[in-house]
Design goal:
Elements (H helix, E strand, L loop, with lengths): L2 H20 L5 E2 L2 E2 L4 H11 L1 H23 L5 H14 L7 H10 L2 H30 L10 H30 L10
Antiparallel strand pairs: 1-2
Helix pairs in contact: 1-2, 1-3, 2-3, 2-5, 2-7, 3-4, 4-6, 5-6, 6-7
């Protein structure tokens, strides 16, 4: 492995650790969760691309599974744990599909494209993450739905609410960072 690739993976590991640390900030509003870790992973994915983003998200998901999932009752069985932790968290790295076009827009100083690309890619990554949570919610958490409520509606309410709040928060922070600190989205090497 060359030094530049190693730097990218070390950076990704640090981002995963930061995302995990942010999970310890209180982040529940009723049954809806805000995941602050999406923000650094989105910046990293937009900086380094989808492969690096998927890898960093996978590490974050495994950390969350072992440090919080097993102890908080969020792990019901191996398949559910696999879907809701490593897979769903890795999916956030899909945001990195916007990295190359974003780098071009940064270089050419195309502000309109910057926001559209960054927000569109972030929307996709958050949507896919909560899509996995929604599926697991219907299959595995549906029995926790209030009496008479469909597991689909129950999962949609909880995971849809979480997705909307995370999209709003990530969108605002990414937009502010694009204006105030665009250098965060430009890799120095690798």
């Amino acid at each position: 492995m060359n030094n530049q690739r190693l730097l990218v993976w070390i950076e990704g590991t640090l981002i995963a650790a930061l995302a995990m640390a942010l999970e310890y900030i209180p982040h529940s509003i009723g049954f809806v969760d805000i995941s602050y870790g999406i923000i650094p992973l989105a910046v990293y994915s937009l900086r380094r691309g989808w492969r690096a983003g998927l890898g960093s998200g996978l590490v974050w998901g495994l950390l969350d599974l072992f440090l919080r999932g097993f102890g908080s009752g969020g792990f019901l069985n191996p398949l559910q744990g696999f879907i809701e932790y490593p897979i769903a968290f890795a999916a956030v790295g899909i945001i990195g599909i916007g990295a190359a076009p974003l780098q071009r827009a940064l270089k050419l100083q195309q502000r309109g494209w910057l926001f559209g690309l960054a927000l569109g890619a972030t929307f996709l990554g958050v949507l896919v993450k909560y899509g996995f949570h929604f599926i697991a919610g219907v299959i595995y958490w549906g029995s926790y739905a209030p009496k008479g409520m469909s597991p689909v509606i129950y999962s949609l309410a909880i995971n849809g609410g979480s997705a909307i709040l995370n999209l709003i928060l990530a969108g605002i922070v990414i937009s502010v960072l694009l204006v105030t600190a665009p250098h965060l989205f430009r890799p120095k090497n690798g």
